[in-house]
Amino acid sequence: MPVDSPVVPVALTVNGKPERLEVDPRTTLLDALRDRLHLSGTKKGCGLGQCGACTVLVDGRRVVSCLTLAVMNDGASVTTIEGLGTPDALHPMQAAFVACDAFQCGYCTPGQILSAVALIDEGHAGSDEEIREHMSGNLCRCGAYANIVEAIRTVAGQEG
Amino acid sequence: MIPGPFHYHRPTSVAEAVALLAAHGDDARPLAGGHSLIPMMKLRMAVPDHLVDLAAIPDLKGICEDGDRIVIGATTTQREVIGSDLLAARLPILAETARQIADPQIRTKGTFGGNVANGDPGNDMPALMQCLDAVYRLAGPDGSRTVPARDYYQGAYFTALEPGELLTAVEIPVPPAGHGYAYEKLKRKVGDYATAAAAVVLTLDGGTVATASIALTNVASTPLHAAAASALVIGTGLDAATLKAAADAAKAITDPATDGRGTAEYRREMAGVMVARALAKAMRRAKGA
Amino acid sequence: MNAPALSAVIGQPVSRVDGPAKVTGTARYAAEFVPDGLAYASVVSATIPRGRIRALDTSAAEGMPGVLAVVSHRNAPKLPYLERDQRPPVDPKSGDQLRMFQDDKVLFNGQPVAVVIADSQQEADAAARCIGIAYDETEPTTTFDPGRGRPPSEETAKGGRPGAAGRGDGAAGLAEAATTVDVTYVQAREHHNAIEPHATIAQWDGDSLTLYDKSQWVQNVVVEIAHVFGIEAGKIRVISPFVGGAFGSALRTWPHVTIAAIAAKMTGRPVRVELSRRQLYHSVGFRPHTLQRVRLGAAPDGRLTAILQDAAAQVATYEEYAETTLQPAETTYSCPNVATAYRLVEMDTNSPCPMRGPGIVTGLYALEAAMDELAVALNVDPVALRLKNHADINEKTGLPWSSKALKACYETAAERFGWADRIAAPRSMRIGTDLVGYGMATAIYHADRAPAEAEVILFANGTAVVRTAASDMGPGTYTSITQIAADELGLPVEAIRFELGDSTLPMAPVHGGSITLVSVGSAVAEACAAVRQKLEALTGEGSIAERLRANGLDRLAASAKASPGEETKRYASSAFGAVFVEVRVDEGLGTLRVKRMTGAYDVGRVINPKIARSQCIGGMMGGLGMALMEAAEWDPRFGKVMNANLAEYLVPVCADTPALDVTFVPSEDTVLNPLGAKGLAEIAICGVAPAIANAVFHATGRRQRHIPIRPEDLIGT
Lengths: 160, 289, 717
Known about the structure:
The complex is a heterotrimer of chains A (160), B (289) and C (717).
Chain A (H helix, E strand, L loop, with lengths): L7 E7 L2 E7 L5 H8 L18 E4 L2 E4 L12 E3 L12 H8 L9 H14 L5 H7 L10 H15 L1
Parallel strand pairs in A: 1-5
Antiparallel strand pairs in A: 1-2, 3-4, 3-5
Chain B lengths: L6 E3 L4 H11 L3 E4 L5 H6 L7 E4 L9 E4 L2 E5 L4 H6 L1 H6 L1 H7 L5 H6 L2 H6 L7 H7 L3 E6 L2 E6 H4 E3 L2 E2 L6 E8 L6 E7 L9 E10 L2 E10 L6 E2 L1 H7 L6 H13 L11 H25 L1
Parallel strand pairs in B: 1-3, 2-3
Antiparallel strand pairs in B: 4-5, 5-10, 6-7, 6-10, 8-9, 11-12, 12-13, 13-14
Chain C lengths: L18 H5 L15 E7 L5 E7 L1 H4 L4 E6 L32 E2 L5 E7 L2 H8 L3 E6 L16 H5 L5 E4 L2 H6 L3 E9 L11 E7 L2 E6 L4 H12 L6 E4 L15 H13 L3 E4 L2 H4 L9 E9 L5 E13 L10 H5 L6 E10 L12 H19 L3 H7 L4 E2 L4 E2 L5 H12 L12 E2 L2 E13 L5 E8 L4 E4 L9 H13 L6 E4 L16 H22 L6 H7 L4 E8 L4 H4 L3 E13 L4 E12 L6 H20 L5 E2 L4 E2 L17 E6 L23 H13 L5 E2 L3 H4 L3
Parallel strand pairs in C: 1-12, 8-29, 10-11, 14-15, 21-22, 25-28
Antiparallel strand pairs in C: 1-5, 2-4, 2-6, 3-5, 7-15, 8-13, 9-10, 9-12, 13-14, 16-17, 18-19, 19-24, 20-21, 20-23, 24-25, 26-27
Helix pairs in contact in C: 10-18, 13-14, 17-18
């Protein structure tokens, strides 16, 4: 017979805004973002860290938010797709994804974009092959990979 | 898909963590990156009542040089292993291996200690640690002890770690400058566990192999140190016949399972190919260095 | 008003109009709506392949924190499930659908048997784990044994999937052949695995029901749920503005939609049902495991004298889903003697369903691989063999093609690919230690059109709204239809808002089978013409805005319906293509890499070349997965897919992406529709798998007659 999980407090800074939550410790960062903060730009694809749709930046680094508990990230700064840009003021990577048609259905897209932003920050945009290798944690079932690589190359070129 | 209920602990020292682990015994699990444990908990393959998060223990983090050894703290992430200048200079095979683990997101949180400690035969670092003859530092309620990587793995998910013990760091003897190395991993796609993989570190004396160490990933219920294969290449120039003999000797100690990665026969064969290719690459690097 | 400039926007590489919403996370998918008081459901799945529920212990779950209800056959409302003629047209034509919680029977492993509803997803999931179920198992049928195959039922046959079809005398054609091949191919069970899991939020307001659902046909959801609950269609509204990929898995309305409605009814709260990745493998259909035998006969000059193709496909016991697998045998090539035989192999599994290029892609795999084998047997070039047997008309129906530029596809793709550099003998091309193989295949997918309606509203501020109940699961419907309206109205793209994905909008057909653009686009074009006519009847001059204001109007609306007509009786319509592939094989490891792919397509007029290209590269990646990776690992002991996750069910990742080259040959099909387009979702995956398989033979000299082809198949060649 399971015991009740005690609720634990979590303090996060999400897209620059402080958030305080009381969560069941089993709550993943993904579920906290989607179901508690209603930041549904972060997507749930598999819940097991196998698709990358839930990729967010934690303290500037890309992580799969479905495999990290909210409570493990107490005190951390989280950037979701909503914190990157808005429809009227797109982040360069968001703009490049639109320009290069780097998505179809759009569901894996927020994770792809956050992963791409991190990839450039990590210095992995040196060649198409390197980009492809370092974007392989993000599945795109519509098969937009070639355009995703093009979008990243474009932004890396602008920044380089 | 939700883990069973648990109590969450966040100790700030190794002593506190060990006390918690010791107090709860088999009902407690240490939590580092969580990327192995949390999926297992979601699938109810692990149902710990107590999770001891190691993130707030500074002593467990970091990479440093200690005489002729490099010491890597357990909660050092794979990303940090890849980014370490020290490792790049002294033990480049670590980054080469870490880069082939899972994908970049997983490597952000996934830890070196978690990869070596949990006994998953699919993990890549354990074979490399056997290849390098690393030693694991374990802290327990009765004090600390060390266990060589070559003695640590007893079966799939069975290790020398006792309930209440925590792997705190790994000591790696640094091979001489100019050593040759390679971690060759065959996988079905980026992010996958190895169909078969081989780690090789060797040194040359003139054109012949002076020392060599070979170990294998995911072709048995534990990582395998291929001692016979290693011995066999010493004194040779790694000609084709030697490569084949080494591959055969390595294959002989494998016992892979038939699974989605291929039949046991195929995976055994691939273990041999990985050994031959890793030896050849290590030789090229040693000569080029 | 001035007449709009011809094709000012159509044909332009306009960026997706829904792009900014998708890249900022503001596009809202089914699970992301948050009605007040939303509760969360967790579906409990059966763990045996066949039998009955003997005992169901829900007491522990019911006492857990946050739990609102546990629903099973013991307490679910009895639902009418009306007769089959009231069933939606995308449902199989024979058999009975799965009924939710109406009795204690278990028909397959993974069937929903209960649902827990709670205040949070965590509480629902936790409680669902605590339901105890005891079963009485009966001997299941869980092996795919083609020997048990039976012909499809009469209803299925009438629906275009007959047990036997053809023309001439297949056996005689084979007997007269100078060269024959007789080969058998196997294709694995494949799963759609869209990254968005299927999800539904159900909300009752009195006797009215709103469903936020992942759907390729919102109005079909209305029909289905009205039929299940025996309520008026007018009481149901389905909302689905964004669909996170589907590839056919959201054509039907699956049982979890009914579960959401039951759960909401019983709790008096809006309820969300979101299936887990694992549940998707037994909840929303799949491409069926299929075995095919192909016999081809040819005269010495390469002319086909016979095509005999047999297929056996797995099917559920309770419902009869069948495919048009053998249609390519009848339509792809000119041949006087064609005979096909289709069999269904019943298994205790959930029902299969259409997956991108349904049936055709399966049949074409076997046919095009066999054509390659014939080319080798005849010692002729594979492209030459196909040109020799070019079908100038559709020989199945005897009708002329409404348009066909397949020869241009072969020529263009071969030229761009560099097919002339191919050394015909297998195992004769190498780069370094890798073997190199070139392979090609024909692509064909019938081009259809269905009736559709649309409404256009012009506003005095110079903008317009276009409305129809279509869907956009990724192909770019939002954008291409906006472009059509822009041209018809003479307005810039930015001035037009296209509303879709709401069942209360004007009638639209299923978003599948590559028919959306030609069907909905034609209706939108006509509605635009109608509103323009109304506008021209007004007094005054100048822009739309000026004319409306001059007449004291704040808006002007018109609707239209567009339907296919008599042309469908006089012409056959199809999209065509040619796919060329280069593979590299590392013999030591058996690993295979697709280096590059060139496709040339005849899809009629291309409305948006940027988005059309994306469709094609997506289809190429889908075909790559089909050829080399995708397979459900079925364990007959449990009647269950064992690799029901995205780590073990392999799909292509970014690193697997080859160089992809897409060309659209000049083509226009104004017979099929006034826009001249033919639709291109399905054609893009057709032919890819056989082109890869053929390239593998060319590289290695060994035939692999199954897909996916795995590394261990290629080692030691």
